[in-house]
Write a structure and sequence with these properties.
Blueprint (H helix, E strand, L loop, with lengths): L1 E7 L3 E2 H4 L9 E9 L2 E10 L3 H11 L7 E11 L5 H18 L20 E7 L7 E3 L2 H5 L1
Parallel strand pairs: 1-6
Antiparallel strand pairs: 1-5, 2-5, 3-4, 3-5, 6-7
Length: 147
């Protein structure tokens, strides 16, 4: 099992985050909405090219289907530190699939991955920062991984 740490940013309004200087970075993102005082988990995704282009595509294609205030947290892979760009992309991909699978009951929008979540690496994900509804540590159980 590989151990990674994701550092989550403060949640920002989807309409404002597109102008943030971090939009050229890569990593995981976590979209929530606040509607009627209740926060719901909408979507977890990844980008290995830029947050900006990925988030902009969501804004155009489906986010307006949900009422309420939509916010995004950016997740940065902060551990392990000294890895190749290729390995970083693999871990980002595996982290996205792991988080989607483990959050499957609460995520409203990304249901398409439920049948195809097969990460290369079994990860123990430590979530730090403004993690929202994500647990501080998340990983597949033995039954989920081997069964």
């Amino acid at each position: 099992m590989r151990k990674i740490t994701l550092d989550w940013s403060y949640p920002m309004d989807i309409n404002n985050i597109l102008y943030d200087e971090r939009m050229g970075d890569i990593g995981i993102y976590y979209i929530t909405r606040n509607f009627g005082g209740k926060i719901s988990d909408l979507y977890i995704g990844k980008t290995t090219y830029s947050f900006g282009s990925r988030l902009e595509s969501h804004a155009w294609f489906w986010l307006d289907n949900y009422r309420g205030r939509k916010q995004v947290r950016l997740g940065y892979l902060v551990s392990p530190k000294r890895i190749s760009d290729e390995n970083r992309k693999i871990l980002i991909n595996d982290a996205e699939m792991t988080l989607i699978w483990l959050m499957r009951d609460s995520l409203i929008h990304n249901k398409q991955c439920m049948q195809t979540c097969y990460p290369t690496n079994r990860l123990l994900i430590k979530n730090i920062g403004y993690r929202g509804n994500l647990l501080s540590e998340m990983c597949f159980t033995d039954e989920e991984w081997f069964g």
